[in-house]
Task: inverse folding
């Protein structure tokens, strides 16, 4: 698989949205040598992904050949699997979202049963959507650590029975297509990086039932040696005391700042909530206990992120997941970062919600599998 799916998709995105319509434009916008851009575009032309269509205006030399995306090449399916639901989308080869649907899916069942139910759901959504062109592949984001090379789930704290499960192979039994899998926070980070400026470093946090983060370093997704880079949910924090965590340790951030933790805290206080969505709705209704709990979770997350920001000095910290829908939560994270980080680290730091909202993971899963598809298409024409 190629090493820079975000870079490849960004090239296609620029061409598709007419921000760059020639090799010279691409070299200028991407900040790459023309020779590098020429090699990449020629490979994509040979694979049938890009096409040359006419000539542009001359700037003193030979008239540049204009590029366009071959819309008829096909589309991919992407899915972002949660604890109780799955979000499914179709993307064209430029990474544009064509269709989105959300369906119930309980991952607490036996893995093979979940995969079978997932496959049926994807086929149902695909039949409803009737997207143009052929299906090229499927990318899936899972709420636990993933060994991307092996295609297995590794040591998940919120997916009982999934440890070591060869999820990519299981999916391939249901889909006669290329399949790519990764952690949901990683793919949310990858999705956010595709449409952003090239070469930026992003810290993207998914705060929902659990907490995870993905790290894009100078434009490339960084997974770490074992694929668990960014797993801040199990950092020990004083506020958690000796609370037991699903990972087997005690005092983890997840036990006080995740959606699941907030549900437990509020139920202990007599507030009738059963899910992160209900916590959010209760806080939005102005319930003082819920609002206080959400704000406190944001402060605790921000304190952990401050260490990461001081160490990594990213360009952006982007918040996704259900909790990011609360202004109190986002403001608390932002306040903690400004208070606890070095001024130089926050002077030009952008702290905001993810651009693509709940679809960020779909963009990332689509980018991951499109990289597989393009790599295979290029290899087959050599």
Result:
């Amino acid at each position: 698989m190629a090493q820079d799916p975000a870079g490849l998709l960004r090239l296609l995105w620029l061409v598709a949205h007419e921000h760059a319509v020639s090799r010279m434009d691409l070299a200028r916008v991407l900040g790459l040598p023309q020779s590098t851009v020429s090699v990449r575009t020629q490979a994509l032309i040979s694979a049938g992904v890009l096409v040359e269509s006419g000539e542009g205006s001359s700037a003193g030399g030979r008239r540049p050949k204009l590029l366009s995306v071959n819309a008829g090449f096909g589309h991919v399916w992407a899915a972002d699997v949660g604890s109780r639901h799955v979000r499914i989308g179709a993307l064209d080869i430029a990474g544009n979202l064509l269709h989105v649907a959300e369906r119930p899916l309980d991952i607490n069942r036996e893995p093979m049963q979940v995969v079978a139910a997932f496959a049926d759901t994807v086929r149902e959504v695909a039949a409803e959507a009737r997207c143009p062109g052929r299906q090229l592949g499927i990318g899936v984001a899972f709420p636990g650590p993933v060994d991307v090379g092996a295609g297995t789930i590794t040591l998940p704290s919120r997916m009982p029975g999934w440890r070591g499960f060869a999820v990519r192979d299981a999916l391939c039994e249901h889909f006669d297509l290329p399949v790519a899998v990764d952690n949901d926070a990683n793919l949310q980070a990858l999705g956010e990086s595709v449409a952003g400026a090239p070469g930026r470093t992003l810290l993207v946090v998914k705060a929902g039932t659990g907490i995870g983060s993905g790290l894009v370093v100078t434009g490339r997704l960084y997974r770490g040696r074992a694929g668990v880079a960014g797993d801040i949910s199990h950092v020990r924090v004083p506020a958690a005391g000796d609370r037991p965590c699903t990972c087997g340790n005690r005092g983890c951030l997840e036990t006080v700042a995740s959606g699941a933790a907030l549900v437990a805290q509020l139920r202990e206080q007599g507030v009738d909530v059963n899910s992160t969505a209900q916590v959010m709705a209760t806080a939005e209704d102005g319930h003082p206990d819920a609002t206080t709990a959400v704000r406190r979770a944001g402060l605790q997350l921000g304190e952990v992120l401050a260490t990461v920001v001081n160490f990594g000095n990213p360009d952006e910290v982007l918040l996704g997941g259900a909790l990011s829908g609360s202004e109190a939560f986002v403001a608390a994270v932002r306040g903690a970062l400004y208070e606890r980080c070095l001024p130089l680290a926050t002077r030009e730091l952008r702290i905001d919600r993810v651009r693509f909202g709940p679809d960020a993971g779909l963009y990332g899963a689509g980018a991951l599998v499109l990289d597989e598809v393009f790599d295979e298409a290029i290899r087959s024409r050599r």
Remarks:
- The first strand starts at residue 50 and ends at 55.
